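Lab notebook, bench 4. The sequencing result for the construct came back, and we need a structural model before the next group meeting so we can plan mutations. Quick request posted to the team channel:

Model the 3D structure of this chain.
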Amino acid sequence: MPASMGTRRAYREVTTRREDQPLSAQPDHAPLTPYAPAPGAPAELLDQLRADQRAAPWVPAFEQEWATALEESRRAFSLAGLYEVVQVWQARLASAPAVEARLASAPAVEAFLDSSRDETGFVDLEEIRSRRR
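Done. Here's the predicted structure in token form:
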């Protein structure tokens, strides 16, 4: 028996993973991103964050996450990290309560925040817990 026949018989019964997969134009190492924001979405999101009352802590946090994701995308040649940052911050902004709703539903919380977190008029949580025991 020629050597080529022996090789064919040896590989006939075993198939590799690549042989089982259909051909695709997508590379194996690049996962498909389920969400791709519009090209101007990061700039629009930054404008919305700057207009929000929580702009002081949120804008620097977004800019830092964006810069980190941008460096990672340059290194990995993938936009997935940038897409994720935009998606997370859009969700964060959408799920944050509106100013009017927060004022109407929790005036005591708003007063506490406005008083620089002065706890003189409030009951200590440890005191409440000790009463239950």
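Residues 38-117 form one domain.
Will bring this to the meeting.
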